[in-house]
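Sequence in, structure out.
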Amino acid sequence: MRDHAIFDKIDLHLIRVLHTVLTERSVSRAAIQLGMHQPAVSASLKRLRDFAGDPLLVRSGANMVPTEAAARMMEPSARILRTAEMLFSDVRGFDPQSAHNTFRVAASDFLDPLFLPKLVTDIKTRAPFVAIEIYPLSGASDYRYELAQGDLDVVIGNWPAPPGDLHLGLLFGDEVVCLVSQDNPAVRRGWDQDSWLAAEHIAPGATHPGAKGVIDEHLATLGLQRHIVARCPHFGLIPSMVATTLLVLTTGRQYCERYLDTLPVKILPCPIPFPELSYYQLWHERTHTSASSRWLRERIKSVASTLSK
């Protein structure tokens, strides 16, 4: 009965105060973020402490830190605020010029290196008050769970077969080629299947648990395996590694072409036929009809369409 009584006294404003105070770890900074007077934030924090039966924020030296109980509240409170934001923004419709949404996008850095800068510029130009959070895709991340929980709005990357339980939109396709140093002997001699497989390859890290990558998954279907001698989770650093070694990077032509004018590298055809790389955006049913999420997906599609121009 007591839990119901407490629940009836907690409104969305208190949840916002809770999350802001715990994030800022300061009542004064939280007051600035919330546009409130500091005594009003302190009064709200006192109510929250009474409800929780916990101090929530305690002093540690010169700083304030959340208690263990408060730390467990941070993500649930953020999720409540995100859900409420989506709920009421959709009731009103989405006006990019006045919206204060936070968009959360996870993207593979296998993409064209111009994609994310162009996307952020496009969104901020059209929706100046929104916030954008970009997350990497890694072997430790479970993007399907994060989409289902509302922790992500969209995931962008390439998959041989995208998950069937998510909505998807094709962004663009790209030819598979090889990037090598201008001094690589293959530039002069060329290569056949055997010499390409035996070359020293560099490959990216996995983008999700259990992933082998589209190149190696296709080779496996042919009963082939390349000689990988280096792996790097930071795809954007790989071209510089290729430029000063005999390493071979096999990926999309569009990505490789961005480095031809800045690094001593060459693009060579791959002697093994690969299907075209397909890049998608994926989203969950929970955001499928959201006006703000639809707007975000439209901006992603629009920016992707300009990359090859």
